[in-house]
Amino acid sequence: MEVETRYEIDRTADYIYAHDFTRVALQFPDELLKDSTRVVRALRDKLRELQRYDDGEEDIVNWRKDVALYVMADTTYGSCCVDEVGAAHINAECVIHYGHACLSPTSTLPAFFVFGKASISVADTVEKICIFPLSRSKPVLVLFGLEYAHAMDAIKEALVAEALRLSDSTSKFDICCADVMCSALDPCNGQMSSNRHVGILDSLPSGRETSDTKPNTSYSIGGLTWSLPYSRRMEDYLLFWIGYDNPAFANIVLTFNGCEIVRYDPMEHCLETDVSPKTRILKRRYYLVEKAKDANIVGILVGTLGVAGYLNMIHQMKQLVSKAGKKAYTLVVGKPNPAKLANFPECDVFVYVSCAQTALLDSKEFLAPVITPFEAMLAFSRGSQWTGAYTMEFRDLIYSPSFQSQNEVDEPRFSFFQGGYVDEQDHEENGNDGAQDRALAITTDKALRIRNDPDSLAKVTPKSPPEFLATRSYQGLDINHNGAAPKPFLVGRTGRAAGYEDERNPKNENM
């Protein structure tokens, strides 16, 4: 497939030209970086062609021919999110995002998405939808990876033709297809633009009339959106996923864990009907929730600096942790890994605030568990119980009424790690006394005495962040050590590469 077609050069150039952007950041994931130079060349040629067509004269030169295109790679966080941090380094006016995307709303910059066009057999896909799901006598909801959005119109047309063929038979044909939520985001205007309407395939003749007068219920997840009749629930549908076994699919499985789900692999042309390994992840997550309840110090990991609402979520997590009588760290470490988080051994658990498709970390190799904001609310809200519902998107949890204090009840809970029931009220009071009072009691002189007296290290049981810092053998560079600032010194060489100051000039020696 040519670069112009695969990367939608015409549509991208029209977007840049229509919005008068002069500095554009092109964000590529690692697997598409090899095509970046060809994309830039084709995009620049198309922008010049649009200018010549608009002006009518090829010799007219203005700013539109000088649109600066910058290629971004090695994103700050997940490649599915718009990297506003990287784009800010070059003062970009917008970001063109290539490849798989989570379509999380941006904070400051407008973004345009090019999902790519993965190969898929429309006939085989429609055949799989009609044979297996319809044999289960359940309505079908078709979801898909965004890389297959280009083929959904053809799939819908084939499904309409199949519905017309079966309209006179006794077979039930009740199918709903999702569509892409948007193709561009503009946080300044609060707008999401899309090329087509999203919703139920109303053109499919199902052979039954509906008397529902209430509006349809809308759903959205991972950049997809759809509507269902008011009288139906998600659990009534069989979910048919078209795409890979990736974080987007995991988000679907965990969020709609009460639905029957099958996955169609367009590359292998096969159906995966057993997704139980994915659903077993919930048992692991429940174990981490119970373990987090016994935490004393909680690290809040900043996993995004661009998704709208991330600051509100961080503040909400701080308030939640403080109300539970625990101490909170706020950490910005980029993409987390076991080596980075091992620098904070005092943290008993980490809460990872990020987009839904990067939030679920396998923390088996980490020294402390890594949980999501939803799991943190379950762990740190007194009296909350897991009903089986699961939410990956933190924007759905901001000031969630289901976790308000009036719904909390004072009752003991069973701790697997303490081997008995724990009174949450006592835990909160002890936590406040242990974390906050001890932090205030530790002075600089006491910390220095602990650091300089190796024998006292064995006598101290750290319970708060200042105590952990005082007992560390290395605490970083102390510019005010012993009351004297360090003297400035030069590292490296001064001058120009043509002749540093410490080098002799051969020309001067010969004169």
TrEMBL record:
<comment type="similarity">
    <text>Belongs to the DPH1/DPH2 family. DPH2 subfamily.</text>
</comment>
<dbReference type="GO" id="GO:0046872">
    <property type="term" value="F:metal ion binding"/>
</dbReference>
<keyword id="KW-0479">Metal-binding</keyword>
<dbReference type="GO" id="GO:0017183">
    <property type="term" value="P:protein histidyl modification to diphthamide"/>
</dbReference>
<feature type="compositionally biased region" description="Basic and acidic residues">
    <location>
        <begin position="499"/>
        <end position="511"/>
    </location>
</feature>
<dbReference type="GO" id="GO:0051536">
    <property type="term" value="F:iron-sulfur cluster binding"/>
</dbReference>
<protein>
    <recommendedName>
        <fullName>2-(3-amino-3-carboxypropyl)histidine synthase subunit 2</fullName>
    </recommendedName>
</protein>
<comment type="pathway">
    <text>Protein modification; peptidyl-diphthamide biosynthesis.</text>
</comment>
<feature type="region of interest" description="Disordered">
    <location>
        <begin position="479"/>
        <end position="511"/>
    </location>
</feature>
<keyword id="KW-0408">Iron</keyword>
<dbReference type="InterPro" id="IPR042263">
    <property type="entry name" value="DPH1/DPH2_1"/>
</dbReference>
<dbReference type="InterPro" id="IPR042265">
    <property type="entry name" value="DPH1/DPH2_3"/>
</dbReference>
<dbReference type="Pfam" id="PF01866">
    <property type="entry name" value="Diphthamide_syn"/>
</dbReference>
<dbReference type="GO" id="GO:0090560">
    <property type="term" value="F:2-(3-amino-3-carboxypropyl)histidine synthase activity"/>
</dbReference>
<keyword id="KW-0411">Iron-sulfur</keyword>
<dbReference type="InterPro" id="IPR016435">
    <property type="entry name" value="DPH1/DPH2"/>
</dbReference>
